Amino acid sequence: MFHGRESEEKGNSSQKADDNSQNQLNDVQDFIFLNCHGLHLYALEDSQCYSTLKICILSKNFIIDMSPLKNCTQLIKLDLHSNQIRIVPDKPFWSAMKELKLLYLHDNSFVKLKNVCSLSACPNLIALTLYDCPVSLKKGYRHVIVNSLWSLKILDNFVISDEEIIENWELPERFKTLSKHLFCDITPVLVKGSNYEKELFQMNYVISKINRVVAHNSPVMILQRWIRGHLTRRMWKKNYLKLLQTKILSDKIRKVLKKDEEKAIVKQVEKSNEENEEKPSTPEDQPQQQLPCQVTSQATQTDHPQRRWSI
Question: Which SS3 state, helix, strand or coil, does residue 138 take?
């Protein structure tokens, strides 16, 4: 009896372990948010970097290598500021992250500007921070990065001006590079008890704030907005409305006339068919009828051949 109970207990424990493992697998599949802020991590393991991750916060640690994040291809926000990273991964690493929009890499140990330019393979990157890094002290650092990352809208808390994109274009002070009107604070703010929904809301708020600054402080965007407004106002003027009305009426009249013409053609075809049916046939068309006398004479000739000789 004792051994039997022991085996039953072992069976129950194995079933519980299997259930726990299945629950862990389900949790891994639904793992989209990771917050390891200030946990004194020295390295990342491949088992910790799930492919379903969308928001990853690994700030204020001692991480040196970020290559284990290569499997996280669904990331939309990655925060690695205040670490000890020296080398940025190559272009294949960033080209796989097609949904990444916010990337925080400030306060790290990046030195080579060519290495940082590999971020140009990230297709939808909007915001990037690299201040407080050795690479940010190099001459032409901002010019090189702005002209390498075409999708970028803001670099180091300053929106990219049209003066940096369009060569030899001098603008007023309001639209110049690093102007106070182009400042936009996008530094990450950590909230206690943060979860995926809160971080996603904060990320959308940052993106909307960037778009607002760009819309009001980019001459190209302002001109496009004025042109679109002018065209729409011109389109809805009275003269244009009259033209539209006449065009609509003419199209309707054409459709009605086409229908009437089709009806008239159908009626003509029906009338012609009826006339052909009612028209009497001509004598040429009718078969020739033999007269009764001819018939009798022939009949007499055939039936009574001896009468001819009797006369």
Answer: coil
